[in-house]
Amino acid sequence: MSKALSITAAFLLAGLSFTALSSAQAATVTIGTDVDAGTLDPRLSRDTTAYRVIDLIYSGLIHTTPSLEAKPDLAESWETPNPTTWIFKLRPNLKFSDGSPLTAADVVFTFSSILNKDFNAPMRALYTPISAVEAVDPQTVKFTLSAPYAPLLSYLDIGIVSKALVEGGTDIALKPVGAGPMKFASWTRGSAIQLEPNPNYWGEKPKVDKVTIKIIGDGSARAQAFEAGDLDIIQSPLAPQDIKRLQADKRFGAVVQPGLGVTYINFNTKDPLLSSPKMRQAFSMLIDQKTIVNDIYQGVDAVASSIVLPSSWAYSKDIKQPGFDVEGAKKLFKEEGWADTNGDGILDKGGKPLSIVLSTHSEDSNRVQTVEFMQANFQAAGVDAKTQISDWPSFSTNYVQKSQHQIALLGWLNIVDPDRLLFAQLTTGGSTNWGGYSNPAVDDLLKQGRSATTQADRTAAYRKAATLLASDLPYYIVSYQGYQLFYSKKLPFEVQATSRGNMRGMIGLKD
Amino acid sequence: MLAYIVRRLLLLIPMAAGMVVVTFGLLLLIPGDPASVLLGQEASAEAINNLRNALGLNDPWYVRLGAYFARLLQGDMGRSIFQNQAVSEIVAGRLGATIELAVVALILACLVGISLGVLAATRQGSIVDTVSMIFAQLGVSMPVYWLGLLLMLLFAVTLGWLPAIGRGAPFPEALWAALTGRPQVLIDSFAHILLPAVALAANSAAIISRLVRTAMLEVLREDFVRTAYAKGLRRQRVILRHAFRNALLPVLSVVGLRFGALLGGAVLTETIFAWPGLGQLTITAISQRDLPLIQGIVLTFAIIFALVNLVVDLLYAVVDPRIRLG
Q1: Which residues are bridge partners to A143 per DSSP?
Q2: B40-55: b or e for each residue (b if 16 or more CB lie within 10 Å)?
Q3: Which of B41, B50, B157 sits opposite A396 (nearest CB)?
Q4: Is the ipTM of this complex over 0.90?
Q5: φ and ψ of A315, to 5 deg
Q6: A98 near A164, Cβ under 8 Å?
Q7: B295 with B24: CB under 8 angstroms?
Q8: Rounded to a whole number, what is the distance in Å from the CA of A117 to chain B's nearest CA?
Q9: What is the pTM (predicted TM-score) of this model?
Q10: What's the average model confidence in pLDDT over B98-114?
């Protein structure tokens, strides 16, 4: 028995020293992520892992810094001779990682395919104001817009693909070739993606010899793998409980900062119960943001006050949605004719009880908890609240996107520009205006916001719009999502976090 | 015997066709649209519809089912909507990992389950019996994802003995490496599979141990066992040669069924331990409504399950000479 034990122990020790040895090699970094990338073609990518890996393999015309400023990447400079023309000058002698030259033709090819309807690019809507892309010469690209479109620059960080490779039949979804700091080495689907430095990258060399992105679907398992030393870096999404524990651990460096996402309530303004702003205000006043943020999200998110992110240039702390106020809500319900006439504890009007369905999706347990907590508060205030929880595909496709909901809790991510959370969502007939909201004054302001050419004009338009929306409430912003990153202090370089989770700061590059 | 095998294999065809139809029907019933999931929240209704057309999702169901069968007959399981790869390639790339995990778990479950069962039965009412049945009760009632996280917490996080997640080199490759002078590769593979295999095996080990105990207790009361003792045979020989072999038959059929349960359990185990197998793929495919991929996985699981049960039926004849197949 003891002999068997010692053999097992020796076996385990050998395995242990082997793993210790491999993690001691300084210049490799292993990053944990929650989903496998679907495709590594930047034009078709749609999941966070793909965005983040693509940002390492590919370069765009510009690169977005952690503070969301546009910095020259493949383009060394750009100018806007008039509000609907953008001209980008590429760096000389750019090369893809396979050594082939990168010219204006590749840029034109990338954007033309995204704009092609039949190509089904998920982010196509962000680029539709572009009416033409031309190569003026091999180093110059000209974008012509159908109308002035200020947010465009923030979206031009999309990776440029090689026209020759794609037309030659290379499947860049599986074997990507870009002009970014790293190049593709291997991909075991569902398990890991490996990258190595791109010798042809124009800029600063990464400080790693190898990057491994490991896919671990379960959040707690990912946190444990990080604690066990199998991973060097992990980042959002993480469960609040894991975040608290990792923050307290001295072996790890932690970055906890505001992210680029919101968790919000989508009111269906076409629903008879919710068509009046007063009713939406009353329901909003029943949402206890502080408890949700502090107890359910354990303080990793922040209480939201308006539809513009606090990190944005357009933010103003003077714009405020209604806060938690049960008595105020009851007063508003009364003004709208809702009172408990039959003494059953539920408000009614014309013989009908005030009943409402709160919904969200099951993948995010914090959202489920939030909806259940809201239900309790609603009921205490005399609203017969029911909940409906289903998985994301049924919740999004068959419910919210078909405007079947009443009050839905969901989120938006990657709000790099205020336009990204407002225009498609809240203009009349907007492509993602699932709540059917329509207010001509807001429409005008949001159009101004995207077409104004100075930041001051844009700020003014967005502040006016946000003020209207804070009382009209087609959306009630519950919280600003936080972003968290944890890294092993053993890494030989300093880790720089961006709230989008991009990884250039995780391979020793700055900004 | 050969005719029997051929007949059983031919029966696979209608079974597989039935599976395809049932899965297809279920997928029609569950709400959620892959085109919308694929394009994300920011896509317009027009863009989603455009993609639905491109994927053929707007065709009537009988056209889609017919097209699927037509392709299947040519050995083509279609393309994954999300992974830009042929379903057969994706499934083939993952199958090895799942079979490896399920086989190691099955071996563990049998070793532990049978030993505990025999031990408990031969010492009925003793402390050994009680302890092993407590273990069995725990094993049956502990959900695999919970046990998996606990094992990971203890052996990977707290003690740091074993890697928390992932897979080492595939076993055949690792074995070859070990034979060619790199034993650490095999050790690494072994270290990686230990925790997920134990988590996955626990439930089956418990069920098998209970079953073996019951079967053994029954057999030990039979006349032929008494006769064997009366002949003056040693206790060990009576238990192993005479009693155990007869108790093995019901156990064998359960082991075949357990393999199905192990494939099912692999879905959760693989997700927890980031084991790159079919189970993990199943979760992803369903959460994305990747219809061709779900079809392909279910079909693969069904065929494996049917083949394993065929092997079990053949083993019956080996264990029990009274059974004649034909």
Answers
A1: A86, A133
A2: ebbbbeebbbbbbeeb
A3: B41
A4: no
A5: -70, 140
A6: no
A7: yes
A8: 8
A9: 0.81
A10: 92
